[in-house]
Amino acid sequence: MSIGFYVDPIFYTIGSGDFFNSFFSTIYVKLEGKGWGSKFPITMNDLYRGKIELNKINEAINELVEIKSNLEKLAPSEIVWDFEDLSQCDTFCEFCEKTLRLVRLRGC
What we know:
The chain contains five helices and two strands. The chain has about 110 residues and is an alpha+beta fold. The mean pLDDT is about 85.
């Protein structure tokens, strides 16, 4: 199943549900430290639940810029596949390394 964002009237596909879960799990475990949404409340609460109100867009963009900067500093082995099952991290390390290399090459 594909996950994406609907920005009226266009749907932008971002990837699989596993990718979506890994993205938020890595932010939660590696970047926040004090609980879900403690450092990036709009991204981790509003975006995760599927909707960002128009009056929060600029703050959401700022959060995402900071998240991107911090994620770029992580080694592939630091990616968290599922915050509820941290044992999965080692299993997908090779996949994550290839994915990160591809993302960085594309300049995303």
